[in-house]
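Below is one such record:
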Amino acid sequence: MDYSAEYKSKLRTAEEVAAMVKSHDLIDYGHFNGKPVMFDTALAKRAEELHGVEIWTAVSVPPIPETAKIQNSFIYNDWQFSMMSRVLQSLDRCYYSPIIYHMAPPTYRNYLGEDRIDDRIIEQKREMCVIQTAPMDKGGFFNFGAQNSESSAKLEVARKAVVEINPNTPYCYGGSEEGVHISQVDYIIEQSEDIPLADVPPTPPSDVDQAIAGILMEHIHDGCCIQLGIGGMPNALGKLLADSDLKDLGGHTEMFVESYVDMIENGIMNGRKKEVDKWRVAFSFAIGSTKLYEYMDHNAKLASYHVNYTNNPQVIGQISNFRAINSCVQVDLYNQINAESNGTVQISGNGGLWDFVCGTLWSPGGKSFMCLPSTFTDKEGNLHSRIVPTFSPCSITTIPRQMVDYIVTEYGAIYVAYQPTWRRAEKIISISHPKFQDELIAEAQKMKIWTRTNRLGY
């Protein structure tokens, strides 16, 4: 079927679409590299005419949105914080909106798209959704590329569904809901200049990252299914796995990162033993280098899915020997996990952490790992423990202690599930930095979660 006439009828300039926005409208942007650029620039030029326009996004990558630089006219609400979000937060312009990530698509469809008001409904309808996509294919679809996530759902519920075409967007096979059909789109914006995707090279691993990765290797065997996030430690682990003699690993993740490429290409990760998506790595979004996006383009070894599939605990639980490997900020003596804040300061978000920790609990032979360096050094050069007696006021508990499986630092991996509080305290102290162990033991005694029969010899 020829869609050229329909395409032309829906084609608008970025300025024409931006002119439709009114004060206090709610506008959804595509997440990650799906953030519109031409539209955002055009909207920013209307700043003096507008007030209180809410822009909803997640993990904005460079370039910084022009609207983010303007106070009062625009308010940013972020489902998951990025470096840009932290800067905006310090200027009172960005606010975190917590969500269980796999619930994002049904949340949009069941609640955020409704006009009615009750005690569970957001009061305003989403006026517009603008997402950067690949050019239309011969079937009339605009592929979301490296950011499937909840894109389909939020376009579906917006009063005006808009795509901004970027030819640099990789075409990623599904999966499911990996694109939107022209019949579901109200307006199309073509970019008037070449806008590259954000090139985010892999983070070089530190010595601590290497040590943690080496410890994790002891828990991975043939046939395991691996979920990794971004950062130096996952990169270090991916390298160790790619260079190992393991075989038949699987991949199932919310975030596809550089670590997977060598594992796939070296034949270590083929998905042969996965119960779902056999022979393919299922993912929902990706952030990385230009090389990563080129690898993803028209690659049948990968499957792009909406996030309520990749992150659904019921799906994860169907995959045997799942290995969920994630990072956190702090752990307390009760084994509660803080993966998102420093006191009142939001530094990240819960993302898919809860989803994968929960799903792994149901996986036959599954294990989830919370990984962190045992210490950090402040700006004055002082060393601090990331294992603390209790969190500071307003620090967030991302994962409750009931759900924690393994905790890993450079000093070892401990299994804490189903353990009493005194044994949990003993175990977490055993993988803390030696400099802080006596202090942590003294605090555990004050908290009445310490016993003289412990194996540390105290």
Summary: The longest strand covers residues 128-133.
